[in-house]
């Protein structure tokens, strides 16, 4: 079955085009009676600094992604570069091509026209004017109650910090249409019995209506007691259930086969680590003392298997294999003058593959291998019939006189990681559980079990990559905010106005994290990418408001309250247009279904929820925060001026 890899960032929406803002501003001047060409030039000139500010600050958001390490950085570096290049091209087109096209193509609608399109436009315009009027009245209401809106802003900041405790994940579990499993039987099972049990498993799996075909084989890793299963599901359009549902449906049926267990996992397109295990996530124990390692590996495996957050808990420790050890009687061997090498040669002659001759024919050649009759190789009783020649007396001495057999239990193999013996415990997540909760629960379980300090533990593969990405997530968001603040501070030559713009982001955080939690999604890398995109979109809306207010204060002499009120009213239409454009662009992702939808849904939910909540709050909180920071900057300037005057008087 041919499977196609889906780039997890391929379907993410890019931020709204700056052309929307330019066209709206040009159209506003044309409706005020300004000639088309002059309106196009005036509209572009008014927004040139705004668009430059939005472009540079938006590219700054993607700088942390470019510097991100690990698997996340390798996956999304090209995405960040592509979006950054698209943003630059959007700004260039919006300041050059878009005004030219506006001057040539825009025409005012004919007021005498009675067509259906004209009537629809008129109804939409009346509806939007009504919404704009209500917003204007609501804006006046909140400007008269600044303490209430400042309290709401602080509340959103606190809520964002609290919601960041949402369960964390690495990548959403996708449906690749391929299920892989590891079958484990008793270490001393015979090849024929193992073959029969694998055949039973294959028949049960093949009977499922969603299964296209199944492949299974046994050995050699390291013995025939292990087997592999590969299940190819039907195409996504030809089955009703997802791969996870098929897997859960097969588990109780496969558990009916006695003497063998099958651990399965849905094969993911993004695989981290080269360790082959029975489940998707690995937890490795290491200890120089192999006896202590085997003891605690069994204790922790039993402990983890009882956790409700984990399923399919298995260990690669195969310490229950029966073994027969030949213990040589050194004193007896020395009396006969027999060496340990002579005993080893005798055993190899009987049970090994010693070639003693070659038979040549006209066409082929045949190797003659010395061994005992195969029927005598199945039990340790054959050792009592072996003899070793004594070099002193040239007589055959029974092997039973020279050595005794001790039956015991020992591991089939001892795995190593680095320099030390290791045991890897594999596990899958229970339905609805996140990897972050599972990691926390495992750490709590090992503390409760009293794990000794000499026994070291570490997560491997996907779980290890998750821990690395989880540790870098707060720094990634903080770096994005710091870079945006520095860029805006340089552009506006102020340390206060960038804070007003950044104050809009907590509302976006609440709008992104709360829907993810309500929809049962964890905060994965895909959700983080959606939040970073959301930061850029929300920030652009705040820049349009603040930049227009500053221009009104400096060039038209308006008071800060009048300037921010006029900016909010005049920028309401382009803000709504850009927000709706981004919202409708991300809505198919949030409502996505079909193959690969698991990767697209988290960023879609984060963007849609963040835009809705931030739009409802930002339009009212931003002007109040701007006025508060404006008064703070004037107070700081006044205090600085008084300090300078006092210093001069003291010097005088």
Structure description:
This protein has 652 residues and is an alpha+beta fold. The protein has 4 domains: 9-108, Multidrug efflux transporter AcrB transmembrane fold, CATH 1.20.1640; 115-171 and 470-518 and 547-555 and 562-634, Multidrug efflux transporter AcrB transmembrane domain (Multidrug efflux transporter AcrB transmembrane fold), CATH 1.20.1640.10; 175-267, Alpha-Beta Plaits, CATH 3.30.70.1430; 321-410, Multidrug efflux transporter AcrB TolC docking domain, DN and DC subdomains (2-Layer Sandwich). Helices cover 57% and strands 15% of the residues. It contains 21 helices and 15 strands. It is elongated. The model is unreliable at 1-8 (pLDDT under 50). The chain crosses the membrane at residues 47-67, 79-106, 475-492, 512-538, 575-593, 605-629. It holds the Pfam family ACR_tran. Keywords: Membrane, Transmembrane, Transmembrane helix.
Topology:
Elements: H1 19-31, H2 36-61, H3 63-66, H4 70-95, H5 97-105, H6 116-143, H7 146-163, E1 178-185, H8 191-206, E2 211-218, E3 226-233, H9 243-254, E4 260-266, E5 281-286, H10 290-305, E6 310-315, E7 321-328, H11 330-336, H12 340-351, E8 354-360, E9 365-370, E10 387-389, E11 396-398, H13 399-402, E12 403-410, E13 416-417, E14 420-429, H14 435-449, E15 456-460, H15 462-492, H16 497-502, H17 505-518, H18 525-556, H19 560-570, H20 572-590, H21 597-651
Antiparallel strand pairs: 1-3, 1-4, 2-3, 5-14, 5-15, 6-14, 7-12, 8-9, 10-11, 13-14
Keywords: Membrane, Transmembrane, Transmembrane helix
InterPro entries: AcrB_DN_DC_subdom (IPR027463), Acrflvin-R (IPR001036)
Organism: Paraburkholderia dipogonis
